[in-house]
Amino acid sequence: MCGIVGAVAQRDVSPVLLEGLKRLEYRGYDSAGLAVMSHDKELQRLRVQGKVNELFKEHQKSPLNGTTGIAHTRWATHGKPNVKNAHPHICHDKVALVHNGIIENHEELRKEQMASGFEFNSETDTEVVVNAIYEALESRLDLLHAVFNTTKKLQGAYALGVINNTDPGRLIAVKKGSPLVIGVGIGEYFIASDVFALLPVTQKFIFLEDGDIADITRDKLTIYDSELSIVERSIKLTELNADMADKAGYRHYMLKEIFSQPNAIEKSLEHRIKDGKIITSEFGQNADSIFSRVKSVKIAACGTSYHAGLIAAYWMEEIAHISCHVEIASEYRYRKSVVIDDTLFVSISQSGETADTLAALHLAKESNFLSTLAICNVAESSLTRDSELVFLTHAGPEIGVASTKAFTTQLVALFLMVIAIAKHNGLSKEYEKMMIKQVKSLSGRVSQLLHHKDEIEIMAKDFADKHHALFLGRGSFLPVAMEGALKLKEISYIHAEAYAAGELKHGPLALVDDDMPIVAVAPNNNLLEKLKSNLQEVKARGGKLYLFADKESDVESTEGVYIINLNVDYDFMAPILHTIPLQLLAYYVAVIKGADIDQPRNLAKSVTVE
Ligand code: G6P
Fold first, then answer.
1. CA distance 276 to 126
2. b/e 11-46 (16+ beta carbons within 10 angstroms → b)
3. b/e map of 339-370 (b: 16 or more CB within 10 Å)?
């Protein structure tokens, strides 16, 4: 994780660096820092423990001025989140560096460097890199070659930004396994971990490829590949704009994002359906022919995206009659698995930069899969670049660490994918039309559900003093319960677990007492009666139940049973609909607890390290 920004300009770069860091804070917020080359060629540095706001305050007290600089917001991997571990790291006042990623052989390099007399000031894996560059500069290499030679010694994933005081107007940027973009300004260049950081200063971007090394001065940019041969990388214009990052009057980004779901869903459907049919080419030029051959589907993802995959598997088997397995990407990448002929590999990711999901995709590309499809929210991401087929979710930037609108739009995308594949496996035109009607009704139905917010806010009060909660669901609502539990633990720090309701008596029932709230997702489907029996088991043991029910679920509030009737009709959209109240519940519990909702402790939005 971690976010990096850099700039070489004619203007003072500190404001650009600080604003960039603020926009990258979703990537980590343990500590922050910046280094700017002063006009008399001295490296000046400010670092703070905590959030970027602290850095703003420090910078107000002692501003750094200069036209070349680098900055960093950290999500600690090696070494505690404190000032001495904060980036930029500097070696002998000569060279400064920011790093995102992990240097896997740092211990070995540290030993070698200690033996040759280096003293270490931090516990990070990064310091060996700045030392190695310094050593190379001392042996009379210029900055480009010093950085290039150093990268040959490094194992792991990294994006680097490096400046030094012998070349005060020069910035070297390297990308290997961690994201890095170059922003192209007028007479100025920038680097950042993502486009978002630089939107206030440019709309033009170059997406570096793995192994690329960029030599940047104010008026010249040269990009080399991993063999140090000059390469051309095209400039792309982004459609994103700087305003997308404001809270639009909402108290938190997460609330804004929950409430923007109807719109995000509509955007995700736009231009994807014509005359009641899916436009399969939206998945890629060859999608139709690939989908016609699919005999099974493998999905890999992490976190909330993994839950979306789990729900899609129910749809895939029920609607398309095609077997579908879903795996946690960090597990899949390291296990020996068997690929059945004509299996489509699907990766799901909001950011398109999650290290484990990317590694799973790379493994899949070396295996015998029919093709690879990425469902992703970021157009120019590593995942979309490396997949044969791509379907973009068009949810717009998601800033809150806890994912909401990315999840619901992933489900929309996955539902369309299931139908597009099912068409080749006997799905009738009438059935397709009926399902398209359902997905087109989704946005309006989500809007209706958001009206339950006040009721849920009241319910949330019961959770605020609890330490544990259980979430129950059955069938495709088990992953919905898992997502509800994940949301609650992410932002309110209440330990929450999800269980298949039928498994209750095989263990978790032992935990049930009046201090353990139990949330049940109770749609009006064929499992409702079974779920009701499970709930009786809870009630009989004094557990307090909170039920989200459908229009005709036929359950009523009684002593110890709190029902929120969502008033929705049951159909294939029900897992998406039932997610909304669980997002709101987690949000309001966290508000009552006064938690840092958009930036929960220890977490980051984009997990670009293993
Ligand atoms: C982090 C985020 C989650 C997200 C997961 C996967 O843990 O905090 O919200 O679901 O990464 O991220 P991706 O970008 O691959 O969907």
1. 54
2. ebbbebbbbbbbbbbbbbbbbbbbbbbbeeeebbbb
3. eeeebbbbbbbbbbbbbbbbbbbebbeeeebb
> What stretch of H or E contains 503?
none
Euclidean distance between CA atoms 383 and 317, whole angstroms = 25
Angle between helices 405-422 and 261-269 in degrees, nearest 10 = 30
Residue 308, pLDDT > 90, answer yes
Our mutation pick for probing the ligand 1 site, out of 328, 607, 608, 609, counting the most ligand atoms within 8 A of Cβ, is 607
Task: Please say whether the beta carbons of 70 and 4 come within 8 A.
Answer: yes
**Contact (CB, 8 A) for 443 and 408:** no
Ligand 1 centroid distance, CA of 7 (Å): 28
Instruction: Considering the candidates 2, 91, 324, 376, report the single residue annotated as catalytic.
Output: 2
Does domain 247-440 sit in CATH 3.20.20.150?
no
pTM beyond 0.85: the answer is: no
CATH architecture classification, 449-610: 3-Layer(aba) Sandwich (3.40)
What is the C-alpha to C-alpha distance for residues 58 and 5, in angstroms, rounded to an integer?
Answer: 18
User: Do the first three CATH levels of 3-245 and 247-440 match, i.e. the same topology?
Assistant: no
Residue type, 562: Y
Residue 462: how many other CB atoms lie within 10 Å: 15
Enumerate the H helices of 461-573 as residue ranges. Answer: 477-492, 528-540
CA–CA dist 47, 53 (Å, integer) = 12
- Cα of 231 to ligand 1 centre, how many Å? 32
Tell me, in angstroms, the distance from the centre of ligand 1 to residue 522's CA: 27
Atom of ligand 1 nearest to the CA of 303: 10
Q: Which residues line ligand 1 (CB under 6 A)?
A: 302-305, 349-351, 354, 357, 401-403, 603, 605-607
Convert the pLDDT of each residue in 160-212 to its tens digit.
999 999 999 999 999 998 889 999 999 999 999 999 899 999 999 999 999 99
Q: Is residue 58 a contact partner of residue 95, using CB atoms and an 8 Å limit? A: no
pLDDT digits (tens, 9 = 90+) for 60-105: 999 999 999 999 999 878 888 899 999 999 999 999 999 998 899 9
Q: What's the CATH fold of domain 3-245? A: Glutamine Phosphoribosylpyrophosphate, subunit 1, domain 1 (3.60.20)
- Reply yes or no on whether 605 is catalytic: yes
